[in-house]
Amino acid sequence: MPKKIVIDCDPGIDDALAIALAHGNPDLDVVGLTTVAGNVGLAHTTNNARCLSAFYGMDAPVAAGADRPLVREPVVAEQVHGGNGLGGVRLPAATSTASAGYAADFLVDALAAAPGQIGLVAVGPLTNIALAVRKEPRIVEWARELVIMGGSYTRGNRTPAAEFNVLADPEAAAIVFGAGWRPVMIGLDLTAQARAVAAVRERWRGLGRLEAELISPILDFYGSHPHYRDEGPAVHDACAVAYAIDPGLFRAVPARVDVELHGRFTTGMTVTDFDAPAQRCNAEVATVLDTDRFWDLLQAAFSHVATRMS
Ligand code: BDR
Ligand code: CA
User: Which atom number of ligand 1 is nearest to the Cα of residue 149?
Assistant: First the structure.
C-alpha cells in the first residue's frame, strides 16, 4: 500500500519538482495539497498548486491556507522563484477550481479521519501546520510523520543565519518544533547536496511536455539566481518528499532544534544541538544524502509523470 501524504507547500519552483516526485512515485499517495503564502503570495501559490496538479494529472484536493505569517509582515522570494512563483512559466489553467476548504481545517480533518496513516511533508513556511496544531493538538499523535524542509545547522540562505521557510514565519516554526512530535528537519546542509547540475538535467531530456514546458524553463530561471549559479540549483523541497519515500537515502541524527525569535542578526535561525541529552531532543536532523539514489528516484518518478501526460 502506498503511504498517504499531504504536502503543505508554496509553489515555488522546487515545490513544483517535489510535487512531481510525490505524484510519480508509486510508494506515495498524495491525498491533498495545502498552500501557504511564502515564495509568493497565497493567490499565486494556490493557483500554481492547482495548475501543477492538473498538468501532472493528479486528482488530489487543493486547500488554500494562511495568506500571511502568524505575527510578522510577509517575506517573499520572488527574486528566486519569479513574480508568479514559477519563474514566469504559465501553465494551462486548472480545470477544477473547487476548494477543499481552509488548509488548517483540511489538515486536522484528514488526520482525524485516518490517525496514524497520513504523513505531512511541509515545504513552505510553517504557518498552516502551526495553525492546525493550535486548533487540534492531537494531530501531533495522528500524523504518521512530519518531514520539514526548513532550517539549517550551519548557515542560512535568506540571511546569514536563517533559512527562508523558517525566517518567513519563525513563530510558526517555533510552535511546530515545540509541539511534541518528532519532525525530521531537512535543512540547507542536506539540500545543498541535491543540486540539479547539467549532468542531472541531461537525464531529464526527453521527458516531453514535462521537461519542455515546465522543468527546463523553471530550472533555467531558478539556476540563474546568484545563490545557485556556481554550484547548481538545490532542489530543496524534493529532498523532503524523498525522505517520505525512502528514509534509507538519508543519514539523520537526533538533535534539539530551537528557533531563534529575538536575535538582532539571527532571527529565524534553527539552533541545533547535536549534543543535547536524549530527553531534550525534539527532531531528527538529516545530514547526509545518497545523491545517486536520490537522482534515480527523481528520474523514475518524472518519467512516470511524463509518460502519463503525453
Ligand atoms: C526553501 O525556501 C523556498 O524558497 C524553497 O521553495 C524552499 O522550500 C529553501 O530555503
Ligand atoms: Ca517551498
Answer: 8
CA of 279 to the centre of ligand 1 (A): 30
Q: How far apart, in whole angstroms, are the C-alpha atoms of residue 11 and residue 237?
A: 10
User: In the Cβ-directed half-sphere of 9, how many Cα atoms lie within 13 Å?
Assistant: 34
Instruction: Report, at the CATH architecture level, how domain 3-309 is classified.
Output: Alpha-Beta Complex (3.90)
- Residue that is written with C-alpha cell 519563474 in the block: 87
Measure 237 CA to ligand 1 centroid, in angstroms. Answer: 7
Residue 251, H or E segment: strand 250-259
Least trusted range by pLDDT, from 56-65, 66-75, 95-104, 130-139? 95-104
Cα(177)–Cα(150) distance, rounded to whole angstroms? 11
Atom of ligand 1 nearest to the CA of 157: 10
CA nearest to 13, candidates 87, 77, 124, 79? 87
Grid cell 531563534 is found at 260
* b (16+ CB within 10 A) / e for 34-45: bbbbbbbbbebb
* Coil/strand/helix, residue 225: coil
Each domain of the chain, given as residue ranges in start order, spans 3-309
**pTM (2 decimals)?**
0.98
The three grid cell numbers given for residue 8, joined into one nine-digit string: 503543505
| Cell, residue 105 | 481545517
pLDDT at 310: 61
**For ligand 1, which residues put their CB under 6 angstroms from it?**
12, 14-15, 39, 77, 80, 123-124, 149, 157, 163-165, 236-237
Average pLDDT score over residue span 223-235: 88
